[in-house]
Amino acid sequence: MGKSTAAFDEKVEIAGDGQNFAIGVKGRFDFAGDKGTLAVDFPEGGISHVDEVFAGSKVYVRGAAGLDGEWGVIGRDKAEAHYLLRAPLNDPEHVLRQLGTMHKISKEETEQVNGTAAVRYHGLLGADTLTLRGSEKLREQAGQLRDAIGEIPMYADTWVDGQGRLVRARLRCDLGPGHVAVTVDFTDHGKAVKVSVPGEATPVSSVSGVLTG
User: Fold this and answer.
1) Residues 51, 59: contact at Cβ < 8 Å?
2) Cβ atoms < 10 Å from Cβ of 23
3) Hey, is 137 helix, strand or coil?
4) d(Cα 58, Cα 74) in Å, to the nearest integer?
5) Buried b vs exposed e over 121-148: b needs ≥16 C-beta within 10 Å?
6) More confident residue, 42 or 87
7) Going by C-beta distance under 8 Å and a sequence separation of 6 or more, which residues neighbour residue 190?
8) Which of 1, 48, 80, 85 registers the highest number of CB atoms within 10 A of its CB?
9) Across the strands, what pairs with 134?
10) CA–CA separation, 21 and 179 (whole Å)
11) How far is residue 144's CA from residue 149's CA, in Å, rounded to a whole number?
12) How would you classify residue 5: left for phi > 0, otherwise alpha for psi between -120 and 50, otherwise beta?
């Protein structure tokens, strides 16, 4: 996956404190070329929307808090995650890094994923996955959780097709009465990805908001 291209459709489900909501992230990404485009929404009736363009070492963002409808730009390595298991600015490559911490992996049954037969693998995620590239506040929150409940259960499943391609990934963190689950479907492997970089963008030092991770 890290040397190819793919379209992706991601759903982030968050439950806890009597609330349940989901965030949708869709786009196309060239993992070898470090470029792609994303659209982020509340798919269950929310009106918020964020556009993102990844181009090498920079990420362009429109629709996030404080940008007033204009494009902002931030160094890709400067972006941080602010919520459990989230990716900084929804970076698709971050999901692959999270999956790279899988251990105690077991081969499960073959299942159909979007019409393709794929073998499911199940495993645990490394302890640091929860706060990978996380903000200081997120790391503090994770520390408080560990103090309160001990080891935080985190699981991952991957589905790999007959050509060895990742076609689905699911990450989950259970927090007693609540949970965070991230499911990503990868399709259209190998197709070219075109990116149009915004002509004007305001440099920003950080981007926050639930839609941007």
Assistant:
1) no
2) 25
3) helix
4) 6
5) bebebeeebbbbbbbeebeebbeebeee
6) 87
7) 4, 5, 6
8) 85
9) 81
10) 11
11) 9
12) beta
Q: Residue 161: beta bridge partners?
A: 118
Residue type, 17: D
Query: Tokens in use for 13?
Result: 């489900």
Distance CA 161, CA 168 (A): 9
- In 3D, which of 205, 3, 175, 207 has the Cα closest to residue 85? 175
Name the residue type at position 146: R
DSSP code of 134?
B
Q: Pick the closest to residue 12 from 87, 67, 68 (CA basis).
A: 87
Helices (H), the chain: 92-99, 136-149
What's the pLDDT band for 113 if we cut at 50, 70, 90?
Answer: very high
Structure-token pair, residue 80: 């941080």
Q: Report the pLDDT averaged over residues 63-92.
A: 90
Q: Tell me, what amino acid is at 172?
A: R
Q: Give CA separation, 209 vs 32, 66, 88, 123, 154, in Å.
A: 28, 10, 11, 30, 24
Q: What value does the mean pLDDT take over residues 16-43?
A: 90
Question: Are 135 and 83 a contacting pair, CB within 8 Å?
Answer: no
- Its pTM stands at 0.90
Helix, strand or coil, per DSSP, at residue 131:
helix
pLDDT band per the 50, 70, 90 thresholds, residue 112: very high
Q: What pLDDT, in 10s, does the model give residues 177-198? A: 788 999 999 999 999 999 999 9
Helices (H), 60-196: 92-99, 136-149
